[in-house]
Amino acid sequence: MPFEEKVTWVSLVVMGVVPVAYFVIMLGRLGDTSAADISYQWPLLIAIGASVVLTIVGSILAGIGTGISAELRGGSASDEFGKDERDVRISRHGDRIGFSVSSAGMVGVLALTMLEYEYFWIASALYLSFVVGTLVASMVKIASYHRGF
Amino acid sequence: MGKPTRVTNRVRALRFAAGEMTQANLADRVGVTRQTVIAIEQGRYSPSLEMAFQIARAFNVPLDDVFQYPEVK
Predict the structure, then answer these.
(1) pTM for the full model?
(2) DSSP states of chain B as a string?
(3) Which residues on neighbouring strands pair with residue B8, listed in sequence order?
(4) Is the ipTM of this complex over 0.85?
(5) Which of chain B's termini has less CB crowding within 10 Å, N or C?
């Protein structure tokens, strides 16, 4: 598996776990607190920060694992870490589709803003758009690696 | 989902004809990863024109000895 694909898997897992935890916790608070009174700022910043840190740590671990497995097979680590035109084209393809999905979500965020929803809903919708766009981009990239591009 | 490209190739056959050149060896010559060579051989990736020329040059054959495109009927 190319290193770029491993990094994509890391991104997919992190973006599939951290935001779910955030939304479960925050939507759970709606039971006894109104949206206007929910203090979402720090949890949201922590969720974003955790995603970034976990993605970096996961990528480093994937890199170490790739290097060790290349060494054990007696192969070249540079081949495993190399990034060529296929990786670049797949990455662009996934990012383009992910961006389209995020952009569509932004229309919903715009609507919430115009309808003067609470900041909590606007921030959550914004985060959700970003998360779904990233997840779709990662899934498209992995599908492209396996099914062809 | 079928193969994403109608371009076919003879990379695998040409590798064997060229003294059983390995995928890693071809990848080194063209400057790509071995996974990309595998994807091309399996018809899962249609390379850029530039890479296609580099592959043909690695085998010392014209481009259409390596890559073929079906006639439109």
Answers:
(1) 0.85
(2) ---S---EE-HHHHHHHTTS--HHHHHHHHTS-HHHHHHHHTTS----HHHHHHHHHHHTS-HHHHEE-PPP-
(3) B68
(4) no
(5) C
